[in-house]
């Protein structure tokens, strides 16, 4: 399975006037993520399914993604993708959606970084910058290190090397 792990783009800061789940993307966050999404589209990526956290900033990121890749399906909003998401949640989503050959998930840190790290068999998380897209080849039935790193898009740049500690600290 091709798995695209996507952290939501930059959103407004937390404050007492706006609930966390209602925080929306900033204009700069939208601009940067559009660049990442266009780069993804240029690679010919066409996931069968896009599943997003219900938080506003993740839904908006998923909508930008869908527009950039000309996604014709329905973006699925799942409480499973809300903060607290983990590998077991991913496996439930995959099973509930008929084991798609390609899946894009949009969510939050530190959950997605921990998920990517665990799937890659790393002891540490693979922290993701805002709007980052990580492509993995994922074998759900495999227990240890069920994923292989393919590439990462961040701020419009693509790397095919598994990020080390310096690159993984992108914000």
TrEMBL record:
InterPro entries recorded: His_Pase_superF_clade-1, His_PPase_superfam
Name the record gives this protein: Histidine phosphatase family protein
Species: Geobacter benzoatilyticus
Lineage of origin: Bacteria, Pseudomonadati, Thermodesulfobacteriota, Desulfuromonadia, Geobacterales
């Amino acid at each position: 399975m091709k798995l695209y792990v996507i952290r939501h783009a930059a959103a407004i800061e937390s404050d007492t006037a706006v609930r966390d789940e209602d925080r929306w993307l900033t204009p700069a966050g939208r601009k940067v993520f559009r660049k990442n999404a266009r780069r993804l589209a240029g690679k010919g990526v066409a996931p069968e399914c896009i599943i997003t956290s219900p938080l506003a900033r993740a839904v908006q990121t998923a909508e930008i993604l869908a527009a950039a890749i000309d996604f014709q399906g329905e973006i699925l909003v799942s409480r499973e993708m809300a903060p607290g998401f983990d590998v077991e949640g991913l496996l439930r989503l995959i099973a509930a959606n008929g084991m798609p050959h390609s899946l894009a998930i949009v969510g939050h840190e530190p959950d997605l970084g921990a998920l990517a790290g665990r799937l890659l068999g790393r002891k540490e998380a693979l922290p993701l910058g805002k709007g980052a897209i990580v492509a993995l080849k994922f074998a759900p039935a495999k227990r240890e290190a069920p994923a292989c790193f393919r590439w990462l898009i961040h701020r419009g740049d693509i790397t095919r090397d598994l990020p080390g500690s310096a690159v993984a600290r992108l914000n």
